[in-house]
DNA sequence: GTCAATTCTTTGT
DNA sequence: ACAAAGAATTGAC
């Protein structure tokens, strides 16, 4: 439903710089704000508008982002990540995202584990919602979060991606 | 296999 | 502002 932009505090402002990232799997879309990488979309999610005036800072971030995305697509763990602008989410979501970003390569967590990590055991469902609201998939390894019995849950960019990325890391799921 | 419980976000009145 | 329904789950019968 194409409504309108929310009236939340610190919502995404106009003026995001969007740049495409070419990978072996397609072209990702990176959106940068004044604070850092604000959003990352899967190929096919949207078309890249012309990015003419790109600040030097954003170019530097984009270089890091490109390398990180390529690493993840190749099944590696990115050594460095650009600054992430997570001001679009609530405190709880930011907490969840931080936990996700701490997941080590080849390791998987369950929604319940993440819930406990943020101090709210039993909030597995809420964690799932927070993951779905994750604006930066791949870089924030939300694909490494599975359900309780290592069952594949859902994924914003499509389950195909989640399964593919997990398979790249030698992680088997039902 | 099916049902109930728990927490956070979003939308409508 | 308040209230109700939904969601990428979990655990028990």
Describe the protein.
With 174 residues, the protein is α+β, with helices and mostly antiparallel strands. 32% of the residues lie in helices and 13% in strands. The chain contains five helices and five strands, in the order βββααβααβα. It has helices spanning 56-73, 91-101, 111-117, 124-132, 159-168, and strands at 17-23, 26-32, 37-41, 109-110, 145-146. A three-stranded antiparallel beta sheet has the order 1-2-3, with helices on one face. Helix 3 crosses helix 4. The longest helix is centred in the middle third of the chain and has 18 residues, at 56-73. It is globular, with a radius of gyration of 16 Å. The N and C termini lie far apart (32 Å). Residues 1-10 have low confidence and may be disordered. The structure holds a DNA duplex (13 and 13 nucleotides).
Structure characteristics:
174 residues, alpha+beta, DNA-binding
Which structural class matches the secondary elements? Answer: alpha+beta
Using only C-alpha atoms, the radius of gyration works out to 16 Å
Strand content: 5-15%
Number of helical segments?
Answer: 5
Give the termini distance in whole angstroms: 32 Å
As residue ranges, the low-confidence spans are 1-10
Give the tally of β-strands: 5
Q: Helicity range of the residues?
A: 25-40%
Shape: globular
What layout of secondary structure does this protein have?
Layout: E1 17-23, E2 26-32, E3 37-41, H1 56-73, H2 91-101, E4 109-110, H3 111-117, H4 124-132, E5 145-146, H5 159-168
Parallel strand pairs: 4-5
Antiparallel strand pairs: 1-2, 2-3
Helix pairs in contact: 3-4
This protein binds a DNA duplex (13 and 13 nucleotides) through helix 3 and helix 4.
């Amino acid at each position: 439903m194409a409504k309108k932009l929310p009236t939340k505090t610190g919502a995404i402002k106009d003026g995001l710089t969007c740049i495409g990232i070419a990978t072996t799997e397609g072209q990702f879309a990176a959106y940068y704000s004044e604070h850092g990488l604000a959003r990352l979309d899967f190929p096919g999610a949207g078309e890249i508008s012309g990015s003419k005036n790109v600040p030097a800072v954003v170019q530097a971030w984009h270089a890091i982002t490109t390398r990180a995305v390529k690493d993840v697509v190749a099944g590696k763990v990115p050594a460095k990540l650009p600054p992430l602008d997570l001001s679009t989410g609530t405190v709880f979501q930011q907490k969840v995202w931080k936990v996700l970003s701490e997941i080590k390569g080849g390791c998987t967590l369950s929604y319940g584990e993440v819930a406990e990590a943020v101090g709210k055991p039993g909030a597995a469902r809420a964690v799932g919602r927070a993951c779905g609201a994750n604006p930066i998939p791949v870089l924030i390894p939300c694909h490494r979060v599975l359900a309780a019995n290592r069952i594949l849950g859902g994924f914003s960019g499509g389950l195909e991606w989640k399964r593919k990325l997990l398979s790249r890391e030698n992680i088997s799921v039902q």
